[in-house]
Amino acid sequence: MEAIWLYQFRLIVIGDSTVGKSCLIRRFTEGRFAQVSDPTVGVDFFSRLVEIEPGKRIKLQIWDTAGQERFRSITRAYYRNSVGGLLLFDITNRRSFQNVHEWLEETKVHVQPYQIVFVLVGHKCDLDTQRQVTRHEAEKLAAAYGMKYIETSARDAINVEKAFTDLTRDIYELVKRGDITIQEGWEGVKSGFVPNVVHSSEEVVKSERRCLC
Amino acid sequence: MEKMEPSRQEVQPAACKASPPYSLESLSKKHCQNQGNLLHFDRQAPGRLTTSPTLRRLRSRGCGSVRGGARGTATAHAPPQHVALEVRTWCDLQEYPGSASPLSNKCPPESEHIWYVCVDTSRFYEHRRSSVVLNLPGLEVFPGDLLVSAGAADYLCHPLLLLNSESKKPRWPFSKRGVQGKDKNKHISDLEDCLSSLKITDFRDYEFHTLKIFMNTLKYLQTHEYLLDVDLWRLFANLEELSQTSFGFVNSLFHIFKDYVDICETSPSLDFISVLTKYFRGSLCQSHQTYCLNYSAAVFYLESLKQRHDFGIYLKWCEQHDQCRRLHLPELLVAPLHRLTRYPLLLKNIWKRSTDSTEKIMIYSIKEKVEKAIQDLEGKVKWLDNFQKFRHLQEIVVWPPLWDRDKRFFIPECLKHIFKEHMAENILSPTNRHLLYEGKLTLAESTRFLDVYLFLFDDFLLVTKTKRNKKVKKLGGSDPGLMCPSLTAELQTVIREGGSCTVIDQPIPLDRLLVRGLDPLHVSVFGLRNAFLIQHENRYRQCIAAFLLQAQTENIKRTWIAQITAAISRFTKSQETKKLSSFPLPAEPSGI
């Protein structure tokens, strides 16, 4: 039976406040752009399926960290349960770019002993006239940390899909190669889900072993 | 930190007004006679809560009329899909003189017991699932609250099971009760049976309802004498209170909007500011703070509990519930934290859209207040982390006396009292210093390699050798749940094994310390890799100690050198400013 998804990856989106984390996630998961962001209370994460190859789907569980930028001592606990992350800065805000280093250091400490794959995202690229960070220097910084760099815009829907799917594909390759493995007690990568097996709560108990694709 | 104190009330099981065969009088009588000889189970009794799709279908075909709650409290607040709910409050009991049941007699009047029981029994009559509503004196049935089997009624008033009174609560590890081998299997299967007799309402979109599923299931199991030694507070802290406060807030807000929509001609203004003020200036932030302060310790405690088979069964049972959306307890525990951090964002949006200038000022000040609360919390969490960490360090760092440190010094027994050192407590006090960096390295001695653990504080470096002690378990080390989550994995292992970190040499003040990375060419001759050298100089700049340290990787080595160098320069700078200014430094704000 074909799995609905092969794996579930958990991603976090981090970066300074007002760089557009929530907007990027909303654009990706709901396909819309809200002029005024409305943080939905009660929604802890967003989900979307991504098809990385025909028939091969990955479920992404994306955790927004909006509002927690200055609240790190207590939120660090869930860094470690992510396999990947989008590290955002705002291309019209130099400061947010300068803080990228700090964000990386912060996460590096807290994801141990697991590893996390980051992509550097220069957000709000539709505002090119107000640009304060050149593409060249962002690419250099990304390369220094072994990350990919991509420029996106949630407003104009530029590269939003690409940012997420590229990251997903990279993680998938690492999982396929065995560099990242599914581990008990770690939420970063989970194995796939096969439909039509589970009907009721009683049966969930019996068929709790999921298909390892 | 104070624990949640339930209101003092006598236990009074609620009556089942709507379903006459279950009147409390008859119930209690039969309860004392014989449990096996209980009432008929009416699966379609209107008062019965159910998650069964079949039953719901039957009801929606018209056999069960919708009943409002007694006092119209909880049901009125509940979304329309929850109408099958029948709420009973203790007020109803006044109408039932016979309610002085043996159940309540079992309980001492001063008991802090808070359960309300609405019974629908069948457990002993037939092996079908049945339910009891455990309710709180807040008079509302909260979604995610449990429907538990009738057998629970017997245990609910047992003084040993008063969950909120620490002193009375038995802490029996299962081993003490002889649960081993065969018994253990039976214990597990009994636990599974117990869980299978439990159902959860399928209400969604409520205040931390998924978390409450976990909490209430655990409570239920504890009333059945399972997992009694699991500390409910350490896992869920003040969740009950937090959930009620949040629910109250959302509810009041919702009602204001609803009233506004319903009767907008008569009340042109939408006065939700008063609700915002009431809750945000009231207990909402405080409740979140209490919860969040416990959060990291809870996650850590959970990790230690996961090793247990019986706890694992409980977790799996809850996690498989639809409402948990394949999420696990660790990630659900974070929900209240997310909630708190989103409040300023929401308030900011309201502020942006508001047109009235006084309203704008009010909203802004509320937003500021919440942000301040979060900032305070961050400060408190850090402080607590640091405090606990130092407490553990005091425990595991051993300072050998002078004569043990260096055999040159001869101190006769009669003189030893002069050298009584109270070093450990003073030197490792959280108020005096901060731990900047730490980790395991290998120390190259002339004849051997030694496993060492280094602590870099903001004013000195401490080199200790780790000693494993697998036989003797220290008291503090026997319960990993008591350990500090901020300790490194290595130190946790040391503690778990009852080991210690023995100080090798005196602390090296940072202004007397030299660090240099060693050229790979130089040291490879001696079979050393990723090595660096630490020198300790005395006041006259003479070297009095040297440590040749080896790191696992080149990266770790570089980090160590960078950390030490940065600490030295910070320390020197702070010394200079101390000398320059005769004024004391201003106190740090709580958030830093």
From TrEMBL, chain B:
<dbReference type="InterPro" id="IPR035899">
    <property type="entry name" value="DBL_dom_sf"/>
</dbReference>
<feature type="region of interest" description="Disordered">
    <location>
        <begin position="1"/>
        <end position="22"/>
    </location>
</feature>
<dbReference type="GO" id="GO:0005085">
    <property type="term" value="F:guanyl-nucleotide exchange factor activity"/>
</dbReference>
<dbReference type="InterPro" id="IPR040181">
    <property type="entry name" value="PKHG5/7"/>
</dbReference>
<dbReference type="Pfam" id="PF00621">
    <property type="entry name" value="RhoGEF"/>
</dbReference>
<dbReference type="InterPro" id="IPR011993">
    <property type="entry name" value="PH-like_dom_sf"/>
</dbReference>
<feature type="region of interest" description="Disordered">
    <location>
        <begin position="60"/>
        <end position="79"/>
    </location>
</feature>
<dbReference type="InterPro" id="IPR001331">
    <property type="entry name" value="GDS_CDC24_CS"/>
</dbReference>
<dbReference type="GO" id="GO:0007266">
    <property type="term" value="P:Rho protein signal transduction"/>
</dbReference>
<dbReference type="Pfam" id="PF15720">
    <property type="entry name" value="DUF4675"/>
</dbReference>
<feature type="domain" description="DH">
    <location>
        <begin position="204"/>
        <end position="387"/>
    </location>
</feature>
<protein>
    <recommendedName>
        <fullName>Pleckstrin-like protein domain-containing family G member 7</fullName>
    </recommendedName>
</protein>
<dbReference type="InterPro" id="IPR000219">
    <property type="entry name" value="DH_dom"/>
</dbReference>
<feature type="domain" description="PH">
    <location>
        <begin position="434"/>
        <end position="569"/>
    </location>
</feature>
<dbReference type="InterPro" id="IPR001849">
    <property type="entry name" value="PH_domain"/>
</dbReference>
